[in-house]
Amino acid sequence: MYDFICVGGGISGVSFAYKASKYAKTLLIEAQDYDREIPVRTNIFAEHNKPFVDDIFWNDDSIFPRPFVQLNYKSEKHDGLLNSEEFGAPLGKISHTEILIKKLIDKFKDQGGTTQFNEKITKIVRHSDHIEVINNKGESYSTKLLVLATG
């Protein structure tokens, strides 16, 4: 039995699983085959999210290659360009999210976390003392707490 099962291997699910695996037996389930390839994703990682990222990742230029300094915005009343130099600090960093996900999964496994890739959850059963999830192969896993991070 797992303390946590996290369904969904995007940035939210993997971040949760990584943090939880420091303290509890954790299983991460992802529908895509991450053993073969993690889809390429480039995102903007906001500066206010920095407290939730370990410095080992935040300072890694392969994940966060450059600061995010300009933002175009458009609304019904306003249209313009926001430059972070007006505020004295970057708005965040450009991120190669697939690299961050890969490194988080590696650390997750180093901490004893378990992964199941290329699996879809087809059924969730609530029992009096645990939750059971059943995958597309008919296999089941039990947990005390289920986290759905499927986007």
TrEMBL record:
The protein's name in its UniProt record: FAD dependent oxidoreductase domain-containing protein
